[in-house]
Amino acid sequence: MALHCYSPFSVLSQFRGSKGNRVIICADLLSALLLRAIGQKLQKSYRMNLRPLGVLRSSQDRGILPCGDIAALVYLWNPFTILSCVGLSTSPIENLAVIVSLYGAVTRRVPLAAFGLIMATHLSLYSAPLVFPLIFLLGYGLDAPPIKKFLQTRHGGVETGSTSDVSKQEKLTPTTQLPFSWRTVLHFVFWVLVWSSYVLVLCSLSLKQYGGLEEMFKRTYGFILRIEDLSPNIGVFWYFFAEAFEFSRNYLLIIFNLYILLTSIPSLMFRLKHRPCFLAFAYLAFTSILKSYPSVGDAALYLSLWALFVNELTDMEYSFFIFCGYIGFSLSAL
């Protein structure tokens, strides 16, 4: 009798598990395809920016690696991605929302970028500051070398005095001005307000019998910010708050929650405004390590975004040692 009662439950649980696993696998595959598309856009922009600097000899230079294909393969064969998929974690869905927002900004699809940002923020509070890299992507465009590189090339051509160099520098003048598209950014803000209102209305209607939006914020964002669960995890917050005195808990909560906003975002925004995709990668890597409840799925995302900049890594000295140190630091942090 016990076996008869247990077997339908086990079959139902296996069916639900297999169905959830299919959703996660589809999310991972879609994320890989979007990463490949983002990499192709970055590769095209990389070639266009190298040509005025005189580094790229032809449009079909074989020295440029297919960063999109590499990023997609790194994401699919990443052990952290496989662990998240096997463990039926919701991290692949969160990663998909982040990648959708980046893809929408890279391809200039403003409603899609706003939708991805709102869904990523709804699933994880730490995705909210991604609005700054997205604004830079929509305002300035794709990643480009620093403006001083173009200015140095321009002055070098003027000093030679040749007619061909002068004509080339005239073509470079619009690139060195680095214009900001306020119209696109305002369009993005409008769609952010539209999607956020839509999500809040749906949540208020679905949770009307369970306390409404106030209860939802308390049990989701409030749980993340107050760090109520001190069970051991791969993060660092639980250890500090388990050892801290009760009278200093509120002070430490303010310090730890504002640490990411006050240390990473202002400095990185000022330094990497011409590299918005790399800014998004740096922020995701920073928050994946210092968030209150990290997971291996967070590491899978920023390790895959790193592969989008494989061409820049090959131009660096001692790139192999930098890569090994980066992987070692990521593993030790987890």
From TrEMBL:
Which one GO biological process term can you cite for this protein? GPI anchor biosynthetic process
Per the UniProt record, which residue ranges are transmembrane? 20-38, 112-140, 188-207, 227-245, 251-270, 277-296, 316-333
Cellular component GO terms held in the UniProt record: GPI-anchor transamidase complex
| Pfam families (alphabetical) | PIG-U (PF06728)
Mind listing the UniProt keywords for this protein, alphabetically?
A: Endoplasmic reticulum, GPI-anchor biosynthesis, Membrane, Transmembrane, Transmembrane helix
- Could you tell me the membrane topology recorded for this protein? Multi-pass membrane protein
Write down the superkingdom of origin: Eukaryota
Q: Which residues form the signal peptide?
A: none
Q: Where in the cell is it found?
A: Endoplasmic reticulum membrane
Could you confirm whether the keyword Phosphoprotein appears in this record? no
Recorded hits in InterPro entries, A to Z, give:
PIG-U
**Pathway note:** Glycolipid biosynthesis; glycosylphosphatidylinositol-anchor biosynthesis
Similarity comment text for this entry: Belongs to the PIGU family.
Protein name as it appears in the record = GPI transamidase subunit PIG-U
Could you tell me which species this protein originates from? Arabidopsis thaliana x Arabidopsis arenosa
